[in-house]
Design goal:
The chain has 258 residues and is α/β, with parallel strands linked by helices. It contains eleven helices and ten strands. α6 links the parallel β6 and β7.
């Protein structure tokens, strides 16, 4: 995919999301109690694994539909996932807030709502659907928006995983008070993967910040390499979503996590 098309796609997604937000009605009252969420990795502890439910992506196309959301979430828990990540964007990822609810009801794991969040009403929907955490993407938000959304997360007892790609974005996240910082090995503008860039940004985060590696984790070997670095957790998406039965691959990754 040409760079210009990728850049316009990200802008297109955000424009659609802001229009969607304007039409989004009030969220129902939440019936879910927040679950304890911690990805911090103590000395000698294994790398935490976040297993993702994503039915489609603009770059990869359709992924495995062999298991319904509830069953896939249960398989992830049995295979050793520490947390679930659930895509909720409908237009580009075939997701829904209902998928968060289904994953939450099928497991005892905390759930991350992975969405292009641009307004607080989306936080209400994430919370009402059973999310315990949400993704906030620095590249998609002006500094005042990021500040307001982080404050909104605290008000709703939602943890915030703040996604960055560069040192400059990491500085913005930290200045806004982010406690969990996820570094994406995939550049959102070009879709190019650069694991070493991600590792360098992660290594330079200050002590006390929970470090999460995002994208490009496809094998037990990848997990083992991350487990040997200063990383608390890794999010695993398409590698698992390409599997009709993701249990064996995730179990291998769990064994390699330390």
């Amino acid at each position: 995919m040409a760079k210009g098309r990728v850049v316009s796609l990200l802008a297109e997604i955000l424009a659609h999301k802001r229009a969607e937000l304007a039409r989004l009605g009030p969220a129902p009252r939440s019936s879910f109690e927040p679950r304890s969420v911690s990805l911090a990795r103590g000395p000698g502890e294994p790398l935490r694994l976040i297993a993702e439910i994503k039915l489609r992506s603009p770059s990869a196309g359709s992924l495995s539909l062999a298991l319904p959301v509830r069953e896939r979430a249960a398989v992830y828990q049995r295979a050793g996932a520490n947390m679930l990540s659930v895509l909720t964007d409908a237009r580009y990822f075939d997701g829904a807030f209902e998928h968060v609810r289904q994953a939450r009801e099928a497991t005892s794991l905390p759930v991350l709502c992975k969405e292009f969040i641009v307004g607080e009403r989306q936080l209400d929907w994430a919370r009402a659907s059973g999310a315990d955490a949400v993704l906030l993407i620095v590249r998609c938000l002006a500094p005042p928006e990021l500040d307001a959304l982080l404050a909104g997360c605290r008000q709703r007892a939602l943890a915030a995983l703040v996604e960055v790609s560069t040192d400059a974005e990491a500085t913005r996240a930290l200045d806004a008070g982010a406690e969990w910082v996820g570094v994406n090995a995939r550049d959102l503008d070009t879709l190019a993967m650069d694991a070493e860039r991600a590792a360098s940004v992660l290594d330079r985060l200050p002590p006390g910040v929970t470090r999460v590696h995002l994208s490009g984790v496809g094998s037990a070997g990848d997990v083992g390499r991350l487990a040997a670095r200063r990383v608390d957790a890794a999010l695993i998406g398409e590698a698992l979503m390409r599997q009709a039965d993701p249990g064996p691959l995730l179990a291998e990754m769990r064994a390699a996590a330390g």
